[in-house]
Task: structure prediction
Amino acid sequence: MQKKSSIEFKIKIIKSVSKKDLIQLYKEAGWWESSYDNPSDFLDNVVKDSAVFAGAFSGKKIIGMGRALSDMVSDAYIQDVAVLKAYRGKGIGKKIIQLLLEKLKENNVDWIGVIAQPGTTSFYRELGFDILKDHIPLKYKGV
Result:
């Protein structure tokens, strides 16, 4: 068990989590839109279809998550790293990312990216990520 600021937590790779817990994590991260409420079936596959999905637990309660999308051969993207507000600032997000990186590297994935939210660059730099100079992330908006 990890311990920092008197909070004990454990990070582990998981294959399932309740939809209710996922929604709470997404909402507290500010990523949930009301249009997702009905139906929220897309969450049924978020965990199992991720190449690697890590959960942070305090006892049996999931308090954080992170996932990697990858072909598990060469490239991967880390996304959806979130920790419940009451547990932030205790090193949980860092441990989630470190476990994701460890599992990806075990499979010889050698290109691992992340699109950082504004204000989080230093957090990711401390974990070994660097800014991709001359690259701009793009999001498909439709034609």
In short: The longest helix spans residues 92-106. Helices lie at 19-29, 92-106, 121-126.
